[in-house]
Amino acid sequence: MNITVLYDDFNNTSLLGVNSSSNRIFMANPYEMLNPSAINPAFVPIIVTHAITFLIGIIGNILVIATWSLRGRLRSPTAVFLVSLAAADLLLLLVFVPLETLEYFVISWDTGGNVCKMSSYVEMLSGMATVLNLVAVSIERYE
């Protein structure tokens, strides 16, 4: 996809557009590329949502794991599956969410790089672990 940035004199802002002749980004004011909120108007709500989700998720999953490990009587199969679910969520929160948030701060993201591959791998691993843990809890609770 080719991108052109059109400059709006009335609002003193740049507008992104498609250009079919080159693979370059053209801006009348190139310093606007350093401001992520100029490129993405939903930047602040996205970052705030990611930060709140990150903090609540980290605290909640650590509390689940700590409660299970400190209490000897919570060793039922359901509790073990729920701790495994918390560990999968913690993996997603510690690896994928910061990298996903970082994408909003950079101009271009290397989609073929190792960090992108690791991020995709962790996302899929955590997602599959979550689904399989929930299936295991459902089967165990059914019996």
Automatic annotation (TrEMBL):
It is found in: Membrane. The chain crosses the membrane at residues 42-66, 78-99, 119-139. The keyword Transmembrane helix applies. SUPFAM superfamilies: Family A G protein-coupled receptor-like (SSF81321). Keywords: G-protein coupled receptor, Membrane, Receptor, Transducer, Transmembrane, Transmembrane helix. InterPro entries: GPCR_Rhodpsn (IPR000276), GPCR_Rhodpsn_7TM (IPR017452). Residues 60-143 form the G-protein coupled receptors family 1 profile domain. GO terms for molecular function: G protein-coupled receptor activity. Signal peptide: none annotated. It holds the Pfam family 7tm_1. Its main location: membrane. One of its GO terms (cellular component) is plasma membrane. The keyword Transmembrane helix applies. It is a multi-pass membrane protein. It comes from the Eukaryota. Belongs to the G-protein coupled receptor 1 family. This is G-protein coupled receptors family 1 profile domain-containing protein. It comes from Oppiella nova.
